[in-house]
Predict the 3D structure of the following.
Amino acid sequence: MNQDGAGQVTVRLGNWRDPVLKPWAAEQMRISNEEVTSGKRGLPFSAQATCHPGGVPGQLLYPAEPFYFIQTPKVVYMIWQRDHMVRRIYMTDKHSDNVKPSWFGESIGHYETGDTLVIDTIGLSTEKSYIDNYRTPHTEKLHVVERFKPAADGKALEVLVKVTDPDTFNEPLHLVQRWRKVENPLVETVCAENNEDHFGHNLFPIPRAKKPDF
Protein backbone atom coordinates (compact mmCIF):
# COMPACT_ATOMS: atom_id res chain seq x y z
CA MET A 1 0.00 0.00 0.00
CA ASN A 2 1.32 3.45 -0.91
CA GLN A 3 1.77 5.90 1.98
CA ASP A 4 3.13 8.95 0.16
CA GLY A 5 -0.10 10.42 -1.16
CA ALA A 6 -1.82 10.55 -4.53
CA GLY A 7 0.34 9.78 -7.55
CA GLN A 8 2.98 7.80 -5.67
CA VAL A 9 4.09 4.84 -7.78
CA THR A 10 4.86 1.36 -6.50
CA VAL A 11 7.83 0.12 -8.51
CA ARG A 12 8.58 -3.54 -9.13
CA LEU A 13 11.66 -4.58 -7.20
CA GLY A 14 12.87 -8.10 -7.90
CA ASN A 15 13.88 -10.55 -5.17
CA TRP A 16 17.56 -10.81 -6.01
CA ARG A 17 18.14 -12.96 -2.89
CA ASP A 18 16.05 -15.82 -4.28
CA PRO A 19 18.21 -18.98 -3.94
CA VAL A 20 17.10 -20.24 -7.35
CA LEU A 21 19.27 -17.55 -8.97
CA LYS A 22 22.88 -18.00 -10.01
CA PRO A 23 25.17 -15.28 -8.55
CA TRP A 24 25.49 -13.26 -11.78
CA ALA A 25 21.70 -13.13 -12.21
CA ALA A 26 21.14 -12.11 -8.60
CA GLU A 27 23.71 -9.32 -8.96
CA GLN A 28 22.11 -8.03 -12.16
CA MET A 29 18.73 -7.84 -10.43
CA ARG A 30 20.26 -6.12 -7.40
CA ILE A 31 21.83 -3.46 -9.61
CA SER A 32 18.53 -2.93 -11.42
CA ASN A 33 16.74 -2.41 -8.09
CA GLU A 34 19.45 -0.03 -6.93
CA GLU A 35 19.06 2.15 -10.03
CA VAL A 36 15.50 2.90 -8.97
CA THR A 37 15.87 3.10 -5.18
CA SER A 38 18.86 5.46 -5.56
CA GLY A 39 16.91 7.76 -7.88
CA LYS A 40 19.14 7.13 -10.89
CA ARG A 41 16.04 6.03 -12.82
CA GLY A 42 12.47 7.08 -12.26
CA LEU A 43 11.13 3.62 -13.13
CA PRO A 44 12.71 0.21 -13.81
CA PHE A 45 12.61 -1.35 -17.25
CA SER A 46 9.20 -2.61 -18.37
CA ALA A 47 8.79 -4.20 -21.80
CA GLN A 48 5.21 -3.09 -22.38
CA ALA A 49 5.77 0.47 -21.15
CA THR A 50 8.75 0.95 -23.47
CA CYS A 51 7.27 -0.73 -26.56
CA HIS A 52 9.56 -3.78 -26.37
CA PRO A 53 8.30 -7.33 -26.96
CA GLY A 54 7.96 -9.20 -23.69
CA GLY A 55 9.78 -12.30 -24.87
CA VAL A 56 8.96 -15.86 -23.76
CA PRO A 57 7.45 -16.39 -21.27
CA GLY A 58 7.40 -12.69 -20.28
CA GLN A 59 4.88 -11.65 -22.95
CA LEU A 60 2.27 -13.86 -21.27
CA LEU A 61 2.15 -11.32 -18.42
CA TYR A 62 0.62 -8.62 -20.64
CA PRO A 63 -3.14 -9.20 -20.69
CA ALA A 64 -3.99 -5.53 -20.02
CA GLU A 65 -5.36 -5.55 -23.56
CA PRO A 66 -6.75 -8.61 -25.35
CA PHE A 67 -4.71 -11.08 -27.34
CA TYR A 68 -5.96 -13.60 -29.85
CA PHE A 69 -5.15 -16.98 -31.34
CA ILE A 70 -5.37 -17.77 -35.04
CA GLN A 71 -5.01 -21.48 -35.74
CA THR A 72 -3.95 -22.87 -39.11
CA PRO A 73 -2.69 -26.35 -39.99
CA LYS A 74 0.97 -25.29 -40.12
CA VAL A 75 1.19 -22.19 -37.89
CA VAL A 76 -0.57 -20.95 -34.76
CA TYR A 77 -0.44 -17.17 -34.38
CA MET A 78 -0.62 -15.36 -31.05
CA ILE A 79 -1.51 -11.73 -31.69
CA TRP A 80 -1.47 -9.05 -29.00
CA GLN A 81 -3.58 -5.96 -29.53
CA ARG A 82 -0.85 -3.81 -27.97
CA ASP A 83 1.57 -2.62 -30.63
CA HIS A 84 0.79 -5.43 -33.10
CA MET A 85 2.93 -8.03 -31.32
CA VAL A 86 2.82 -11.35 -33.19
CA ARG A 87 4.28 -14.66 -32.08
CA ARG A 88 4.36 -17.65 -34.47
CA ILE A 89 4.25 -21.27 -33.38
CA TYR A 90 5.23 -23.65 -36.16
CA MET A 91 3.40 -26.97 -36.00
CA THR A 92 6.37 -29.26 -36.51
CA ASP A 93 8.30 -31.70 -34.33
CA LYS A 94 11.84 -30.40 -34.84
CA HIS A 95 13.68 -27.13 -34.26
CA SER A 96 15.86 -25.62 -36.98
CA ASP A 97 19.49 -26.74 -37.06
CA ASN A 98 20.74 -23.19 -36.47
CA VAL A 99 18.40 -20.91 -34.53
CA LYS A 100 19.25 -17.22 -34.57
CA PRO A 101 18.28 -15.52 -31.27
CA SER A 102 15.23 -13.26 -31.54
CA TRP A 103 12.59 -11.56 -29.38
CA PHE A 104 10.22 -14.56 -29.36
CA GLY A 105 12.76 -17.23 -30.31
CA GLU A 106 11.77 -20.24 -32.36
CA SER A 107 8.57 -21.91 -31.15
CA ILE A 108 7.39 -25.29 -32.38
CA GLY A 109 4.16 -26.90 -31.26
CA HIS A 110 1.84 -29.87 -31.27
CA TYR A 111 -1.49 -30.85 -29.72
CA GLU A 112 -1.88 -33.45 -26.99
CA THR A 113 -5.20 -35.09 -25.98
CA GLY A 114 -6.93 -32.96 -28.58
CA ASP A 115 -7.14 -29.65 -26.72
CA THR A 116 -3.72 -29.03 -25.14
CA LEU A 117 -1.31 -26.96 -27.22
CA VAL A 118 2.29 -27.74 -26.23
CA ILE A 119 4.86 -25.15 -27.33
CA ASP A 120 8.63 -25.65 -27.15
CA THR A 121 10.74 -22.49 -27.50
CA ILE A 122 14.49 -21.91 -27.82
CA GLY A 123 16.65 -19.23 -29.43
CA LEU A 124 15.58 -16.33 -27.21
CA SER A 125 17.58 -13.12 -27.32
CA THR A 126 18.93 -11.77 -24.04
CA GLU A 127 18.80 -8.09 -25.08
CA LYS A 128 16.18 -6.34 -22.90
CA SER A 129 14.55 -9.74 -22.38
CA TYR A 130 13.43 -11.00 -18.99
CA ILE A 131 11.48 -13.92 -17.54
CA ASP A 132 9.01 -11.63 -15.78
CA ASN A 133 8.20 -8.03 -14.86
CA TYR A 134 10.80 -8.08 -12.07
CA ARG A 135 13.65 -8.20 -14.59
CA THR A 136 14.72 -11.76 -13.89
CA PRO A 137 17.39 -12.32 -16.57
CA HIS A 138 18.31 -15.36 -18.61
CA THR A 139 20.98 -16.57 -21.02
CA GLU A 140 20.64 -17.86 -24.58
CA LYS A 141 20.34 -21.35 -23.09
CA LEU A 142 16.80 -20.51 -22.01
CA HIS A 143 14.35 -23.29 -22.88
CA VAL A 144 10.62 -22.73 -22.35
CA VAL A 145 7.84 -25.33 -22.60
CA GLU A 146 4.24 -24.09 -22.41
CA ARG A 147 1.06 -26.14 -22.17
CA PHE A 148 -2.09 -24.19 -23.13
CA LYS A 149 -5.40 -25.79 -22.19
CA PRO A 150 -8.94 -24.33 -22.23
CA ALA A 151 -11.23 -24.73 -19.23
CA ALA A 152 -13.99 -27.33 -19.46
CA ASP A 153 -16.64 -24.63 -19.91
CA GLY A 154 -14.62 -22.86 -22.62
CA LYS A 155 -14.63 -19.56 -20.72
CA ALA A 156 -11.00 -19.50 -19.64
CA LEU A 157 -7.53 -20.49 -20.81
CA GLU A 158 -4.66 -21.71 -18.65
CA VAL A 159 -1.01 -22.16 -19.48
CA LEU A 160 1.50 -24.17 -17.46
CA VAL A 161 5.07 -23.06 -18.14
CA LYS A 162 8.38 -24.79 -17.45
CA VAL A 163 11.46 -22.57 -17.67
CA THR A 164 14.92 -24.13 -17.83
CA ASP A 165 18.22 -22.25 -18.02
CA PRO A 166 21.15 -24.02 -16.31
CA ASP A 167 23.34 -20.89 -16.48
CA THR A 168 20.78 -18.70 -14.71
CA PHE A 169 18.70 -20.91 -12.39
CA ASN A 170 19.70 -23.64 -9.98
CA GLU A 171 16.57 -25.60 -10.89
CA PRO A 172 13.70 -25.31 -13.40
CA LEU A 173 10.94 -22.77 -12.77
CA HIS A 174 7.27 -23.83 -12.94
CA LEU A 175 4.81 -21.02 -13.66
CA VAL A 176 1.10 -20.65 -14.40
CA GLN A 177 -1.05 -17.96 -16.03
CA ARG A 178 -4.81 -17.81 -16.61
CA TRP A 179 -7.06 -15.62 -18.76
CA ARG A 180 -10.79 -15.08 -19.16
CA LYS A 181 -12.42 -15.39 -22.56
CA VAL A 182 -14.11 -12.17 -23.65
CA GLU A 183 -15.79 -11.03 -26.84
CA ASN A 184 -13.77 -8.01 -27.91
CA PRO A 185 -12.94 -6.68 -31.38
CA LEU A 186 -9.27 -6.38 -32.36
CA VAL A 187 -8.49 -2.67 -32.45
CA GLU A 188 -5.32 -0.80 -33.39
CA THR A 189 -3.17 0.23 -30.42
CA VAL A 190 0.19 1.85 -31.17
CA CYS A 191 2.67 1.98 -28.29
CA ALA A 192 5.43 4.15 -29.74
CA GLU A 193 3.46 7.33 -30.46
CA ASN A 194 4.59 10.12 -28.10
CA ASN A 195 6.10 7.59 -25.69
CA GLU A 196 9.03 9.70 -24.50
CA ASP A 197 10.73 10.70 -21.26
CA HIS A 198 9.11 14.14 -21.05
CA PHE A 199 9.83 14.69 -17.35
CA GLY A 200 13.50 13.72 -17.22
CA HIS A 201 13.20 10.53 -15.19
CA ASN A 202 15.97 8.73 -17.12
CA LEU A 203 13.51 6.15 -18.38
CA PHE A 204 14.55 3.36 -20.72
CA PRO A 205 14.12 4.55 -24.33
CA ILE A 206 11.79 2.86 -26.79
CA PRO A 207 13.41 0.69 -29.49
CA ARG A 208 14.18 2.44 -32.76
CA ALA A 209 15.15 1.04 -36.14
CA LYS A 210 18.76 1.78 -37.11
CA LYS A 211 18.14 1.13 -40.82
CA PRO A 212 15.11 0.85 -43.11
CA ASP A 213 13.43 -2.53 -43.52
CA PHE A 214 13.37 -2.06 -47.30
Q: What stands out?
A: The first strand starts at residue 67 and ends at 71.
